[in-house]
């Protein structure tokens, strides 16, 4: 049959798809899937598959060319290709029944047969019928592919019978099967192959499928194919099965169950989808890309085409959209993660301290963050929120959106940060605890491995808490510290054994015997053995040290950049310039000044008012003064102006003077600070050593509104400041004036400026010629130890702070020149500052007239190096020894410092050298006058020094060394004539104010230091030494005497009248001396300026006298004795050295004149060579002589015990002159006798110090019983002071410690004396002044607040070991106070307890407060040695009362004490004995002490 109907080359089969059709009543709400089955087979691509096809049509659509008035649809043809090309064509038609959308009845067509018969027809005909695609095609045929049914007719070759096995839409399956039976019976008649297609198997019902299977099984040659058009499962297989039945030559396809076929299809779909997703991930990386762009990029890609075919473009775009959204979310996630990573770091920068955030909630923290100045650096506030829905996600700004903080993540990170700070704090604490644990394990040696130590600390809590890495880190750090410390100690030990290394010549090589000796000596040192496990490092350090000792240079100095030579060069390079022989930097060139530049300095517009007043008195800026017209240029400057902080305003404006106006204490204080700042700035940036100082004029402004009651105070304070600053003070003229400034004041100020300019022109005389400059009269070498704990500026300050200092010659970077008046003439002194190692070559080869040897009293190595250097210095060269420490109090607080200062003083005494001390915390004595006595001695001995040098040079070959000095000077140069009048530094006249006056504080009061000597008001003042007999002399001004040459007088019974004049002149204070040189009267001989010390006179050996000088006390000439602190045995021989033959003998070395130097030098040889001969010179082996301590006479105003209560007590410069006491040197053994004297057992005597007041008072200095009542148990003055201090002073640093202005204290007491109701707040007083007045109140009481009778009981209680028992005993003792004393003591202790609670700001702990108050409250007798031994106990008692005030006075519990409970304060019983070996040098003369605070120089 087929051979007849078909062409063998191109077979074409027509298949008719039939199934239930008809109205809704017949088929239900939906069809059975015939159209979808045809659609999926003919056009299987997903994009061409339509799931909705309707059979309800309008008449127009039914009559269109697609339907063509037929009840069947032509779906087109499918080409089936085989291996050899085109196999066959399958034409598909669908038999259906179209319903009229108006009548809902079948449309009428040419074939009026029922569906069952019409569907079974095998021949179909319809002219020009178009291929059906989808429902939307109807009526819009021109928009779709228009293919016609071939030839307008078809012959059906087989049927596909569609049966819906799903649940159906309002249709019963049985009804459908009845219809299928009927339809099948009609089709089977055509004898065409039939295949039953179970449609919608993706929603099949088991029962329906079983029924259908039963139906198919009951029929012959009927096959059932389970299909799903939606998922394209078995659709093609269904048609292929039918074709096989039509064409028997084809192989029979295997029937595949729906589930298996669906699984295979899904696997294929999954594979295709996966490949498409990978393709999209590879292609799409930016979520901003569009779908259209992606399509263009993906077209032609197999993976893309397969996916489009299988799943369709719609699904592809859906996947693209999801992927783009995923990309965007991933981007947002990354940005969020970046922010969340940055946020902890930001919080760590903003809240780096746990104290800031420990108690802050997150909203509070956000508020603080928002208000910070750097908020914009970390965060950004967006206009549109939340940030992840705004354009910020595409912004390159990496600042954190502030709205992110409102998210849970932000809050979580904040609290995590707080927790991290807590844990980190705990971790750090544990690491610190573990570090302290390691520090307590003393057997840990440098270089010891961790494994050896670990077992000893495993039980420690901190060890268990921290990680192993932290343990090793802490131990490594600990090892580094102890190794570094051990190496430093080892290096320091090598320096301390200086005599062991400095006994060979320079550039030598140590022998094997020497190295054996060195190791033998050092092996006894624990610091040597400490590096036992680091023996190579130790040997390296030793060899490096030896190499440095034998080849000392700046390059090999072990201190590196801390070498003294480098430091000195840097300081001198910065502060000194080469002498300028011109005067180009002067503002003016002659005394004919016609233009004046005035700087007007004031506060709150006062300077501008003065400028307006001056302009009002001027005509076109020209001012007439004393018949001459001056052009004035004014520069008003406010004290708060930033102009004052500019470094160039002085050079730019070039002022000739400065008017400083004030009208209150506050403005006066500001003026004083500004003047000091201006002077310091000019001095620091000076370019010309001879530029003139800037005159400052202080002008007091009058009050226009009313007469200010503080005018006398302002006048007094202004005068005092003017005296201190060495400037002119212009007062308010008497009478009432309507303006703040008068013409008289302005003219007085201008006259002062002109006078200052004229004086400066006179001072700036022509400079010496170059030839004169090349010559120097004296050559001094100052030596210092590298690495000493003080600044080079300290030892240079006596020279650099002087006007007479200038730079040395070119090429001498560590040399300076001093122009000083020595004797009657001005001399040029060359001072070369070197390290000890650089000075060794100078000592051997250069002419040196004197040595200034500096050492640190804190460092044994410094003293050892000095000893080693000094031992080889020729004894004809004068030596000045200088001890450096922080303050005089160090002598009492440190046994090591006391020992080194004592040793230095002993060496100076033995070799007849001068000894002085400099203090880094004091500016008082940093001036050249400290060395003036030494320069005098050097000048006196200069001929002998040069002769000895020439003698020594002739006996040895000339050797070359580093050229430290220029060519040697001539032996007898003409005196260096004075090119300048005597400067202030050379002037012996006192300044216009007394340095020991009420308003001058001589020593600084740093916030942290140890116990100081304290006067009765609790004011601190350091004292160098107070051994029994020396106590008084440390605070008195001795008579201004100089040793006179020996005269053959048998005794001294009369006083030199000129001496009386000198003493009276020296005792005067507060008198301004005229500027200019001080000259002697012509009728006074040079010898008249000398006193006649008893020890300088020739007398019999049996003559002994304790009195060196006999001095009148006052104008009444009451004779008193000035007693030396220690007596020395007389005699002209010293250590076997005959002083009379000094000039005739060959020079020796100092080590042969000093027992200390000799014993130190020979000690190592005795240790190494047991057969050493000679006697050991040790002070301890010498026979001690008995003696007694000498006190000054009570009639002597200089040595009176009353003086310790005077204000401003100080003796900052300790200077010993051996010429005064060298003939009594042998009596130094008396020191040790004092140490063995039994302690005094007398009870403390009541002291009645002289009152501070200079006026009579009915309130101050009277007994407490007269100041209190039963209603007011506390004196009113105490209440007012305490109230004022607690209201305004609890934030003042150093309250009660820093001394207030004494004038303000006196004014406060005076005004309170007159009016008890005054308000302290209206008096414009500083807190320290009120605090000082309160302490002065207690100091002026007839009896101390703590009765003397209870002092022994308090001391005894302080020695109780158990802390609680000690408190109970003290509470019982305090109950024994008189009732009035008890109430006041309770009030004061409670107040001090409140003050101590603010110690973080005031720096005044209970310990510091007790130091300030115990002398005031207890009034001890400082002359009693028992008092000195109980000083710390008394202070500790007061500290206990302050700390435990609540327990003692208010019934409270015991407070936690910072001190060690159960341990009484350290005893001081041996303090006096320990101090005695130091022989203190005599204090400065009155002229020296008064001159130690020179007028502050401008430059």
List its traits.
40% helix, alpha/beta, eight-stranded mixed sheet, disordered N terminus, Rossmann fold
Secondary structure elements and pairings:
Layout: H1 2-5, E1 11-19, H2 24-27, H3 34-42, E2 56-57, H4 59-63, E3 72-82, E4 85-95, E5 99-100, H5 115-119, E6 123-125, E7 153-155, E8 158-164, H6 173-187, E9 194-199, H7 206-217, E10 223-226, H8 235-246, H9 258-283, H10 291-298, H11 302-310, H12 313-350, H13 354-357, H14 362-370, H15 375-378, E11 379-380, E12 400-401, H16 408-440, H17 450-457, H18 461-465, H19 468-496, H20 498-501, H21 512-522, H22 526-529, H23 535-550, H24 564-575, E13 595-602, H25 606-617, E14 622-625, E15 628-638, H26 649-653, E16 657-662, H27 665-684, E17 696-700, H28 711-725, E18 728-730, H29 743-763, H30 770-773, E19 778-784, H31 792-800, E20 805-807, E21 815-822, E22 825-835, H32 836-845, E23 850-856, H33 860-871, E24 879-885, H34 890-893, H35 895-910, E25 914-919, H36 932-954, E26 1013-1014, E27 1020-1021, H37 1057-1067, E28 1109-1112, E29 1119-1122, E30 1133-1134, E31 1137-1138, H38 1155-1168, E32 1214-1216, H39 1218-1221, H40 1230-1235, H41 1276-1288, H42 1302-1314, H43 1327-1339, H44 1351-1358, H45 1363-1374, H46 1379-1396, H47 1399-1402, H48 1406-1418, ...
Parallel strand pairs: 1-4, 1-8, 2-5, 8-9, 9-10, 11-12, 13-15, 13-16, 16-17, 17-18, 19-22, 19-23, 23-24, 24-25
Antiparallel strand pairs: 3-4, 6-7, 14-15, 20-21, 21-22, 25-32, 26-27, 28-29, 30-31
Task: Compose a concise summary of this entry.
It contains 53 helices and 32 strands.
């Amino acid at each position: 049959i087929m051979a007849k109907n078909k062409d063998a080359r191109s077979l074409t089969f027509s298949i008719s798809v039939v199934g239930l059709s008809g109205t809704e009543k017949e088929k239900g709400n939906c069809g059975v899937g015939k159209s979808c089955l045809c659609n999926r087979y003919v056009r299987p691509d997903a994009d061409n598959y339509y799931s909705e096809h309707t059979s309800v049509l309008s008449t127009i659509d039914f009559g269109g060319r697609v339907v063509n008035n037929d009840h069947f649809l032509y779906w087109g043809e499918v080409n089936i290709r085989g291996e050899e090309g085109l196999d066959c064509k399958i034409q598909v038609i669908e038999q259906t029944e179209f319903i009229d959308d108006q009548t809902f009845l079948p449309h009428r067509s040419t074939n009026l047969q029922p569906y069952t018969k019409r569907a079974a027809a095998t021949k179909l005909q319809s002219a020009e019928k178009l291929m059906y695609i989808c429902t939307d095609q109807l009526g819009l045929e021109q928009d779709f592919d228009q293919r016609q049914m071939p030839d307008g007719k078809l012959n059906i070759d087989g049927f596909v019978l569609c049966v819906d096995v799903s649940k159906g839409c309002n249709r019963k399956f049985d009804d459908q099967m009845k219809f299928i039976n009927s339809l099948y019976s009609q089709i089977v008649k055509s004898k065409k192959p039939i295949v039953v297609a179970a449609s919608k198997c993706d929603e099949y019902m088991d029962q329906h499928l079983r029924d259908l299977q039963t139906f198919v099984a009951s029929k012959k040659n009927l096959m059932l194919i389970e299909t799903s058009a939606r998922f394209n499962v078995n659709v093609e297989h269904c048609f292929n099965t039918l074709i096989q039945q039509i064409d028997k030559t084809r192989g029979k396809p295997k029937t595949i169950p729906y589930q298996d076929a669906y699984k295979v299809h899904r696997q294929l779909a999954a594979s295709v989808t996966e490949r498409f997703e990978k393709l999209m991930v590879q292609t799409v990386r930016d979520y901003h890309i569009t779908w259209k762009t992606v399509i263009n990029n993906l077209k032609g890609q197999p993976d893309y085409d397969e996916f489009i075919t299988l799943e369709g473009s719609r699904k592809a775009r859906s996947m693209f959209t999801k992927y783009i959204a995923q990309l965007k979310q991933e981007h947002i996630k990354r940005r969020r993660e970046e922010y969340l990573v940055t946020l902890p770091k930001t919080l760590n920068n903003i809240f780096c301290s746990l104290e800031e955030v420990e108690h802050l909630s997150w909203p509070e923290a956000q508020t603080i963050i928002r208000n910070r100045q750097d908020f914009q650096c970390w965060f950004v506030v967006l206009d549109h929120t939340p940030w992840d829905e705004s354009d910020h996600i595409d912004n390159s700004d990496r600042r954190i959106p502030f709205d992110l903080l409102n998210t849970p993540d932000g809050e979580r990170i904040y609290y995590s940060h707080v927790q991290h700070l807590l844990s980190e704090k705990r971790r750090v604490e544990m690491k610190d605890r573990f570090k302290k644990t390691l520090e307590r394990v003393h057997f840990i040696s440098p270089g010891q491995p961790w494994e050896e130590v670990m077992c000893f600390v495993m039980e420690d809590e901190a060890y268990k808490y921290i990680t192993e890495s932290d343990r090793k880190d802490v131990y490594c750090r600990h090892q580094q510290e102890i190794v570094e410390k051990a190496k430093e100690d080892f290096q320091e030990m090598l320096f301390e054994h200086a005599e062991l290394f400095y006994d060979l010549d320079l550039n030598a090589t140590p022998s094997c015997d020497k190295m054996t000796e060195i190791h033998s000596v050092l092996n006894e040192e624990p610091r040597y053995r400490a590096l036992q496990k680091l023996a190579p490092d130790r040997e390296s350090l030793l060899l490096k040290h030896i190499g440095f000792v034998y080849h000392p240079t700046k390059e090999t100095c072990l201190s590196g950049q801390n070498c003294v030579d480098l430091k000195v060069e840097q300081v001198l390079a910065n502060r000194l310039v080469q002498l300028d022989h011109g005067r180009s930097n002067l503002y003016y060139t002659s005394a004919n000044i016609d233009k004046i530049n005035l700087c007007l300095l004031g506060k709150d517009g006062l300077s501008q008012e003065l400028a307006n007043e001056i302009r009002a008195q001027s005509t076109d800026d020209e001012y007439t003064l004393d018949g001459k017209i001056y052009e004035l240029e004014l520069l008003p400057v406010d004290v708060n102006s930033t102009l004052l902080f500019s470094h160039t305003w002085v050079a730019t404006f070039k002022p000739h003077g400065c008017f400083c106006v004030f009208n209150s204490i506050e403005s006066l204080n500001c003026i004083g600070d500004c003047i000091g700042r201006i002077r310091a700035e000019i001095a620091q940036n000076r370019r010309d050593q001879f530029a003139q100082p800037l005159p400052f004029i202080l002008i007091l402004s009058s009050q226009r509104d009313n007469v200010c009651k503080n005018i006398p105070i302002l006048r007094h304070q202004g005068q005092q400041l003017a005296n201190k600053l060495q400037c002119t003070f212009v007062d308010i003229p008497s009478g009432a004036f309507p303006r703040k400034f008068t013409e008289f004041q302005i003219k007085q100020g201008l006259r002062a400026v002109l006078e200052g300019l004229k004086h400066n022109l006179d001072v700036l005389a022509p400079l010496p010629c170059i030839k004169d400059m090349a010559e120097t009269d004296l050559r001094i070498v100052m030596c210092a130890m590298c690495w000493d704990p003080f600044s080079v500026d300290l030892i240079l300050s006596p020279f650099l702070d002087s006007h007479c200092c200038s730079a040395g010659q070119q090429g001498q970077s560590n040399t300076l020149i001093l122009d000083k008046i020595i004797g009657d003439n001005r001399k040029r002194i060359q001072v070369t500052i070197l390290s000890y190692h650089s000075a060794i070559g100078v000592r051997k080869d250069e002419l040196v007239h004197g040595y200034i040897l500096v050492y640190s009293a804190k460092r044994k190595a410094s003293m050892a190096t000095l000893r080693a250097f000094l031992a080889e210095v020729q004894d004809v060269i004068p030596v000045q020894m200088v001890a450096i420490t922080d303050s005089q109090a160090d002598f009492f607080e440190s046994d090591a410092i006391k020992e080194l200062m004592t040793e230095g003083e002993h060496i100076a005494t033995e070799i007849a050298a001068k000894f002085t001390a400099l203090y880094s915390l004091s500016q008082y004595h940093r001036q050249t006058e400290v060395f003036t006595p030494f320069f005098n001695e050097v000048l006196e001995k200069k001929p002998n020094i040069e002769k000895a040098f020439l003698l020594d040079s002739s006996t040895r070959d000339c050797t070359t060394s580093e050229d430290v000095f220029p060519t040697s000077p001539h032996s007898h140069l003409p005196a260096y004539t004075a090119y300048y009048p005597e400067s202030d530094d050379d002037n012996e006249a006192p300044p216009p104010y007394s340095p020991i006056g009420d308003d001058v504080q001589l020593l600084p009061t740093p916030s942290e230091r140890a116990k100081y000597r304290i006067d009765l008001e609790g004011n601190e003042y350091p004292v160098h030494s107070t051994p029994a007999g020396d106590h008084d002399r440390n605070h008195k001004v001795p008579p201004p005497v100089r040793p006179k040459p020996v005269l053959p007088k048998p005794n001294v019974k009369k006083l030199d009248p000129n001496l009386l004049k000198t003493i009276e002149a020296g005792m005067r204070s507060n008198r301004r001396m005229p500027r200019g040189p001080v000259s002697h009267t012509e009728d006074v001989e040079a010898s008249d300026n000398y006193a006649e010390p008893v020890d300088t006179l020739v007398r019999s050996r049996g003559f002994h006298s304790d009195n060196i000088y006999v001095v009148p006390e006052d104008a009444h000439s009451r004779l008193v004795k000035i007693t030396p602190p220690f007596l020395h045995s007389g005699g002209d021989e010293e250590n076997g050295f005959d002083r009379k033959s000094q000039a005739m003998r060959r020079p020796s070395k100092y080590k042969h004149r000093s027992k200390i130097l000799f014993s130190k030098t020979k000690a190592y040889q005795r240790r190494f060579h047991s057969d050493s001969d000679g006697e050991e010179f040790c002070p301890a082996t010498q026979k001690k002589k008995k003696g007694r301590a000498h006190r000054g006479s009570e009639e002597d105003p200089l040595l009176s015990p009353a003086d310790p209560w005077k204000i401003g007590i100080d003796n900052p410069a300790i200077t010993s002159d051996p010429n005064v006491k060298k003939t009594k040197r042998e009596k130094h053994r008396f020191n040790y006798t004092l140490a063995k004297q039994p302690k005094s057992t007398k009870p403390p005597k009541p002291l009645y110090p002289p009152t501070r007041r200079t006026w009579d008072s009915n309130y101050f200095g009277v007994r407490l019983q007269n100041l209190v009542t039963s209603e007011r148990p506390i004196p009113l003055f105490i209440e007012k002071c305490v109230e004022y201090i607690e209201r305004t002073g609890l934030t003042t640093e150093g309250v009660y410690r820093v001394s207030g202005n004494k004038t303000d204290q006196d004014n406060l007491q005076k005004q309170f004396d007159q009016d008890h109701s005054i308000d302290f707040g209206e008096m414009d007083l500083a807190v320290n002044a009120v605090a000082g007045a309160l302490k002065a109140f207690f100091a002026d009481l007839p009896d101390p607040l703590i009765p003397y009778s209870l002092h022994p009981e308090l001391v005894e209680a302080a020695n109780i070991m158990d802390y609680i028992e000690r408190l109970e005993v003290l509470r019982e003792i305090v109950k024994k106070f008189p009732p009035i004393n008890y109430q006041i003591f309770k009030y004061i202790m409670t107040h001090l307890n409140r003050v101590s609670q603010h110690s973080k700001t005031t720096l005044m702990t209970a310990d510091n407060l007790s130091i300030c108050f115990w002398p005031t409250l207890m009034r001890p007798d400082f002359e009693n040695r028992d008092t000195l031994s109980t000083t710390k106990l008394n202070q500790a008692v007061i500290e206990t009362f302050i700390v435990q005030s609540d327990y003692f006075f208010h019934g409270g519990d015991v407070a936690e004490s910072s001190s060690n409970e159960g341990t009484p304060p350290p005893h001081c019983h041996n303090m006096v004995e320990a101090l005695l070996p130091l022989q203190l040098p005599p204090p400065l003369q009155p002229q020296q002490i008064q001159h130690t605070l020179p007028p502050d120089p401008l430059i």
